[in-house]
Amino acid sequence: MTNTSGYQRGPVTLRGRYVPQTTTDQRLLDDRGQAAWLHTDPWRIMRIQAEFVEGFGTLAEVGPAVSVFGSARTGPDDPNYALGEQVGAALVKAGYAVITGGGPGSMEAANKGAAEAGGTSVGLGIELPFEQGLNEYVHIGVNFRYFFIRKTMFVKYAQGFIVLPGGFGTFDELFEAMTLVQTRKVTRFPIVLIGSDYWAGLIDWLRTTVLDRGTISPHDLDLLHVTDDVDHAVQLIKDAGSELADQAAAQERAEEVAAQEYAEDVIEADRLGEGEGDLEGERSGERSDDRGTIRR
Ligand SMILES: C/C(=C\CNc1ncnc2c1ncn2[C@@H]1O[C@H](COP(=O)(O)O)[C@@H](O)[C@H]1O)CO
Questions:
Q1: DSSP annotation string for the chain
Q2: Measured in angstroms, how far is the CA atom of residue 201 from the centroid of ligand 1?
Q3: 165 lines ligand 1 (CB under 6 A)
Q4: Complex ipTM, two decimals?
Q5: CATH architecture classification, 52-246
Q6: Which residue of 31, 76, 91, 230 has the smallest Cβ count within 10 Å?
């Protein structure tokens, strides 16, 4: 006989001393408890999920975009500010939305350039102790609590990265992008550094010390492009986009041909009275002898 007694907590049955003194609803609705749970990891997981949902939901329909990084400290009179504006405008002219960290300095410059060129200007802000809020040129802004979620957005919704002169924050974004491409965690995308003078020391160190000591491979250096010419930077991103589109089209064609060949094989096997299982074996190089033993 089935014993139906016990306390049902969703799909879980609890009996004896395991039966709780309160119901789940009671605990949910009872606000007299401590608020310590707000600072626990399970609650953080909910916030993390919510932040991903908000980011994906906001950015999924932005269209082709390029993420632009650079110093938060670049003042409006700094030549790099004008460079940032040019980058924003040139990207818009080439059909891209511009995504930045939404802060001051070079981020603001790129957002300004994009907005004034009539394009889409996106700012992905981050909660910081000295937060300044999103710059005034951001059309679509999302403020993130978590760095790693914001970084996912910079990569997921961009066709390439343009990096203006910057400090630790900029280096972090640059090296994260390089690592993702180097480890093939993402499909290769272009990373363009603007300002050959500023980046020369880093490039030189990578080419000599880092390469010489064998901690990177020679081809890893190909991940970076350096230029002073904004139009050239944008062209590099466009070219990489066309190359990727060609590769994707070739892959699609190859899959179509393979599917067509497979369908023809199935029809032929059917005509000859063989099963689809035999065909699978043949495709993977397997052959069975009279006793059914699989040979390769
Ligand atoms: C330091 C100041 C403001 C900081 N505000 C920022 N808002 C948004 N994003 C930021 C901010 N600071 C850094 N970032 C990100 O890092 C990159 C710039 O860092 P760097 O160290 O200045 O190079 C940038 O691309 C942002 O994504 C007020 O001076």
A1: -----SEEETTEEE-GGGS-SS-HHHHHH-TTS-SGGGGSHHHHHHHHHHHHHHHHHHHTTS-SEEEEE--TT--TTSHHHHHHHHHHHHHHHTT-EEEE-S-STHHHHHHHHHHHTT--EEEEEE--TT-----TT-SEEEEES-HHHHHHHHHHT-SEEEE-S--HHHHHHHHHHHHHHHTTSS----EEEE-HHHHHHHHHHIIIIIHHTTSS-GGGGGGEEEES-HHHHHHHHHHHHHHHHHHHHHHHHHHHHHHHHHHHHHHHHHHHT--HHHHHHHHTT-EE-TT--EE-
A2: 22
A3: no
A4: 0.93
A5: 3-Layer(aba) Sandwich (3.40)
A6: 31
